[in-house]
Write a structure and sequence with these properties.
This protein is mainly alpha-helical. 63% of the residues lie in helices and 0% in strands. It starts with a helix and ends with a helix.
Length: 75
């Protein structure tokens, strides 16, 4: 029994805990589709972080092109 306890302690020592704030910063780098369909399904913890990311994310258009169709119709 003590051997399995030592093994469990070694596994916990090897595991790296990453805080939620770090995950939210990493999620900014990933596309929304990958977050929603991939990362959120891994565990309840990730599902919570993905939901929080989408709630706090600022929605903005990176590039928008506005053009006139008047010139297109006259040609």
């Amino acid at each position: 029994m003590s051997e399995s306890r030592k093994e469990a302690e070694e596994k916990m020592a090897k595991a790296i805990f990453i805080s939620g704030d770090c995950w939210l910063k990493v999620f900014d780098l990933l596309p929304a589709l990958q977050l929603g369909l991939g990362i959120a399904l891994i565990s309840h913890r990730f599902d919570f972080y993905v939901d929080e990311h989408f709630k706090t994310r600022k929605r903005a258009l990176k590039c928008i092109r506005i053009g006139s169709k008047i010139g297109f119709l006259t040609q």
